[in-house]
Amino acid sequence: MLRVTGVRLAESVSKHPLNLREASAALLPPLPLYRRILRAHRNLPHEMRSLGDDYVKAEFRRHQEVTNKVHIIGFLSQWKMYLDQLPAGPEAQSFRGKPLDPTMLEKMSAEQLGQLYEVMHVAKDVWRPVSPEQDGREPTSNEGGSS
Fold this sequence. Notes:
Layout: H1 2-15, H2 20-24, H3 30-41, H4 46-62, H5 69-85, H6 102-107, H7 110-127, H8 132-135
């Protein structure tokens, strides 16, 4: 009887193809997820990595003491989806993010919208081009400037 059950299990596994979307939707425990995100950030351009690392660390710190299981599952699943969307390897150097889905914006609380606004301003500061005069160095001939 045990053998028949084992055969049935093997048959059911082999008859259904692996659904990658369901497999990637599996939640990771907080610490491994946190580590994987920080590792994935290593491939990003320096400015994006620095901004992303700081934000991830702050968010995980903020949610360390949360006891509401529904909130924890939502938090972990959103960060897992973020991890799945990050590019890996050489193409990560040219990654510039993706547009925010308008339906997500509609679902956000006032606090979340405030955080998004703050992140937007920090990101603009990171990506704002710095002129050579502001940087404290002399402009070169290919950077423009009056010479």
